[in-house]
Amino acid sequence: MDKAKERERQTRYRYLTEIQQMMFVFGEIQDPLADTTMLIEDIVRSQVIEIIVMAAAQAQRRGSRFLAAEDFIFLIRHDRTKVLRLREYLSWKDVRKKVKEREDAGDDIIDDANADKPDRVAKVNIKLSWELANAFSENLADDDSDDDDEMLDAQSDSLKRLKDADDVTRQMTRDEYVHYSECRQASFTFRKNKRFREWANMTAFLDTKLNDEIIDILGFLTFEMVSKITEMALCIKRDLDKAA
What we know:
By secondary structure, the chain is mainly α. It is 65% helix and 0% strand. It has helices at residues 3-12, 16-25, 34-61, 69-75, 80-104, 132-135, 145-169, 174-184, 193-199, 212-243. Helix 2 (16-25) crosses helix 8 (174-184) and helix 3 crosses helix 4. The longest helix is centred in the C-terminal third of the chain and has 32 residues, at 212-243.
């Protein structure tokens, strides 16, 4: 590859390492083909841009200039499992934020008067404006049984992912497991907000700057995209191998 093409590749493709790590976690070989990785990055970038544009249109319909979490959740509302995982992710993110704020303020997480009972920080229950029950939530008894059942479905999917990871790592050496654990931390957005904004060329599609929560949501969605593409591609490959 000549120097001009190499510079062009480095400028256009900013997440090849992270995508390779994610693909490895989802079942691909440790060093996938560069062309494959670049294709996935192109697909993910185009999807991110489409999601941003559609979310901005949804926010405009709400009469707001600023994007909110519910705008993105609305776009994926038909994939209930993904919605629940995202809501769980945002809830626990808020818990961690509150705990950190209390630690920074010097407050004890364990109350001295109830040292044997940890002081729990409640998770945020994210209400979605288009869900009928939420429109009448003030007049209805607090019944979370349906939400609990749906959350169990999402948790079962997460448990399956954990089991798959356990099966993959069972025969790994210590060094291999350390590398696999590092790959599981791969992200498009964690400590990369500026790079992500430039990569998605957000200023070309938005008049306002996205806040950190929206960037985190896009980080979650990009991780899910790579997961889906990799798992589907591997499934197709297995089917083709069987038919050969």
